[in-house]
Amino acid sequence: MKQNLVSLVDATKLIAVLASLTGIVLVSSPLWLNDPDLIQAAGIVIFSVVLWATGAIPLHVTALIMFLTATVLEIAPTNVVFAGFHASATWLVFGGLVITIAVNKSGLANRAVNTLVEVLPAKYFAMALGIAFAGVLLAFIMPSASARAVLMAPLAMTLSDNLGFKRNTPARFGLIIAAGMGSTIPAFGILPSTVVTMAFAGVAESLHGVTFSYFEYLLLNFPILGMTGLLIQTALITVIFGSKPNTIREIKTTYNWSFEERRLLTILLIALALWMSDALHGISPAWVALAAALVCITPGIGLLKSKVLTEEINYGPWLFIAGVIGMGAITSHTGLGKAIGSFLLSNLPLSENGGIVTFYQIFAIGALINLISTAPIVAPIMTAFADSIALSTNWPIKSILLAEVPSFMIFPFPHQAPPVAITMALGGVPMKEGAKILVIYFVIALLVLMPLQYFWGKLIGAYP
Fold first, then answer.
1. Which residue has the higher pLDDT, 405 or 320?
2. Model pTM score
């Protein structure tokens, strides 16, 4: 077993070294090409994606290398390279870092987890499924997946403490990953529950005049890709990371709520109400989280000392998320995503009226674009040339659009869905641990869920 682990570590390092060398060769393309922009962008993307996936060096160090390289070599303008620091998701993570500390210190997380433990059997699978399903329920009332990640991460960490799973242990990693996947992946099957699906629906309507009803989208994508996928993910987490809970620690909570708990609960309920009603007031979930964090550290009002910003917060996750968003911005600005999409569209032999073969081909295009960008970027890129795919396959445009959705929901690396990465980063889970689950799930989904999804969609008339 030990020898296998050593071999795996060596393989990870080898992959990281090869990716670094490939990135260096591609980034140096001005030395041997006249038009190197796309090649350089590909180099920085390959370097970043592989090092984030393998965790060969700290995530934030990879992000900083990417920032420096892209800026010095002028792969993209600085406002593009550092777009992550302007993005709302990055500031949502910042707010989440503060809120996580507040939830733990106030005792509110202990109270919530004690309730969960009382309801669920003392089995790892039950606990993992319970924390994941809590994220699914939040998806129906809270439209921001990143905001859900901010709420779920501290609960998963406290649940791990309650079950006796110490920091940096596989069992703890599994529960945090379950919380991230549960609050994100099934939500892609609920139309207004993620930025990705809302962008997808908006572009589909503006470019192609196609609209989707809430129920038809839910009926197609939630049963198979959402809930069946969630059960498979939880089973994988249990097999790979599961451990028998130690004697469940009775966390000291009283029936009477403390002043700190009441104060933080009030802050969070106000934030939740604003998150749920963002369509009415138009305030980004990030600024709601930032405001909640500021209230938590404001002297005389909050329950945390302001020095928490300099003494207790780990800014590594913040830099990592800024790096992921910056990489996506570079991909979009340089046209790398569109170029790869066009290349695939020109060279992948799309089958006319090919049934499930066509379904897999559409997925392959979206999955490859998603691999070098992120889900929020693949949605508008794929949707933009859906009409070209429709001409090649003889599928209705609406069916083409709906066939894109699996490429948002099935992916091999955590950074491809930022809310999953946010939950893991807040919980201190290495990205390579999440990749273990997602890569295996990706293979299972290709072999099992994709055929089920196609025949289910065909049954209800979504696919030809």
1. 405
2. 0.77
